[in-house]
Amino acid sequence: MGLGDTLTKAQASKDNIWLVGQPGIGKTSLLAAMPDVFVIVTGKESGLNKLIDRGRVSEVPHTPPVESWEDFWSVLTELATLDHKFGMVGIDSITDIAELAKDYIVRTEYDGCLTKYGSSWGVGTSKYKALLGKMIEKFFALNHREPSVGVVMTSGAEAQRRNDPQAGEYNQWSPQIEKNAFELLSKAVDMILFLRHDAQVDREGRAVAGTTRVLYTEGDNTFIAKNRHGLPRYISLGMSADEACGNLGRAIVAAKK
Description:
single chain, alpha/beta, Rossmann fold, eight-stranded mixed β-sheet, two-stranded antiparallel ribbon, 8 helices, 12 strands, 23% strand
């Protein structure tokens, strides 16, 4: 490679998206509504099967429950290297996959002893991060296929206590995943989209229960979000998964223009 290979235009590739929100907000149904999606389902997540069984979403190609890192890696490798017609790969949820990665390192490098892993002077953590790094390389391999394949992953949300010299202590909602995994994945994804119910107030300005579901693309001190497209700060999820997916898709197309 030399200067003659210099590019001035971006090469088209699909996005890596992280859907974050509390249980029941609609992460899995939004994932299932993505066009041409294939979903890797972990053993701790039964939401997709229930949604399909009850007719809440259309039938979606998906794996049996993935119970080990080896099973996940096998499926992900096939999706990244073999011919298929899927346009998106879903992971429900990335929190469970990160746990399987850590379990794999503990099981194969430390005789299944979590204490040995924790007392390895950071060596275990380095191996864990390296394994997640290999997973992210597979994500990029999917992105660079022809045609490109995007990755959409889900996780729950949890409140982290923060302390600001000026604002004082406050809670910030972030993906429910350990710090080492978050640091790697947050850099690898194009969007972290935070799903929540829109805040509603009465005439006196008092908070009331809200029913409107909103997808936030830009974070603040109360929650973490990210987008590389210049999307509007929030996008309505509407009344169905198909409507939510359509609203997000239109916002991405409009931003690219």
